[in-house]
Design brief:
- This protein has helices at residues 27-33, 39-47, 65-71, 120-124, 147-153, 181-184; strands at residues 15-16, 51-61, 79-88, 91-101, 106-107, 110-111, 131-140, 159-168, 171-179.
- The longest helix has 9 residues, at 39-47.
- By secondary structure, it is α+β, with helices and mostly antiparallel strands.
- It has 6 helices and 9 strands; from the N terminus they run βααβαββββαβαββα.
Length: 186
């Protein structure tokens, strides 16, 4: 699976966001998991222009099984897989993994394959008709992360995350965000 992810040794186990799930999460995790707006904008409101993106992986490949199922993708279909670290002046805040199916890459005036170091949130939250279809949550133990990312951001504890299916003009994408200790202090 290493060729499908810089972040993980194996696919994380996700839990459907159900009524009551919110109250099982620590309060600071709830705040980020259920943030209705752009996480990038929330970080910019706190850190200003110090927020940056480091692209860890961007390639066309087949997503993990649960990702394909959520997006209803065929097994042999490639999607654009993008994994990034959002940071403020080098302080790690959020790891993100995005699955963008081929038919979603070009939306309106944007080509999502050419984001570079621009945060995805700045692009998709600019669309007034952005829809949130569904959300799952996870708690990932340190051994599930790849050695590379553990070294990069010093993961030594379980990390909470959410994944959200978004749609713009009925074209879906999957965005998974993992809240590092630095962001939970905000």
């Amino acid at each position: 699976m290493s060729n499908k992810s810089f972040l993980f040794n194996r696919e994380p186990l996700w839990f459907e966001n159900r009524s009551g799930t919110r109250h099982t999460l620590p309060e600071n995790v709830q705040s980020w998991t259920y943030e209705p707006g752009s996480l990038t904008q929330r970080m910019r409101d706190y850190y200003g222009n110090a927020v940056g993106v480091k692209v860890l992986l961007q390639q066309w490949n087949t997503p993990f099984l649960s990702e394909r199922r959520l997006l209803k993708l065929h097994e042999n279909r490639y999607s654009l897989i993008r994994e990034v670290l959002l940071h403020a002046d080098g302080k790690p805040l959020i790891l993100a993994r995005t699955i963008i199916p081929a038919n979603t890459v070009k939306i309106a005036k944007s080509n999502l394959s050419h984001l570079g170091s621009r945060p995805l949130g700045e692009v998709i939250f600019s669309y007034p008709k952005l829809e949130r279809i569904e959300m799952d949550v996870t708690l990932i133990e340190p051994q599930k992360w790849s050695r590379s990312i553990c070294n990069e951001v010093s993961i030594d504890q379980a990390i909470w995350g959410r994944r959200t299916v978004y749609a713009i003009a009925h074209r879906q994408m999957l965005v998974s965000e993992f809240f590092l200790p630095g962001v939970l202090e905000i």
